[in-house]
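Example record for the data management plan.
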Amino acid sequence: MSVQRQRSTRLEQFYHKYLQNERSADFIAAVSEYYSNETLKRLAVAGNRVVRRAAVLALGFLGNYDANEVVGRALRDRDRAVRLLAEHGLRQIWFRAGNDHHYQSLNALVRLNDNGHFYEAIEQCRELLAEAPLLAEAWNQRAIAEFSLFDYEESALNCQRVLEINPYHFNAAMGLGHCYLQMDQPILALEAFKDALRINPNLECVRSQIRQLERSMGRERLDD
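Corresponding structural encoding:
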């Protein structure tokens, strides 16, 4: 048996065991012992269906931000389970773009936004971005706070900044679409939602939003 096949078989075993007992800590420990991030990235692309699922799941738990592209591409995998695991994993990977301090700061920003402390969130985003201007998730959290304060134009600008840094950030693409809707720019909103769906074809809520916008714009053209 080749080394590649041995690696694939072992990873499949770890994955099946995880599905049986749902013990993520055991899965993480087992994968960490045998696999590097680079190996997991290769398996996420070249493995069979089960291996791709296992590798993408593992990268979601363990992957650094350099796994963003591989897992981002997995959003379009032919296997639905891989796509769903990639969507969940990316949300975790985005928070690992910087160092431990940045990770803690990003989680603090999420808590501020979740609890409605939007002005404080914007101020802390400003401080964090002064230190780490390429931290896409900080721009995203700032966009969320600004949207919540009805500053849609500024929120849109920050969503665009997120996508310049991280083209796989489907949440920012969705956010941009909602900003344009609030700004009464349906054509730009439609383009943004289509971009979000191009990045992540699994966004059924966005697919529905696109259909509604297209119907609405079609009725407006008929009325004209």
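Summary line stored alongside the record: The chain has a mean pLDDT of 93.
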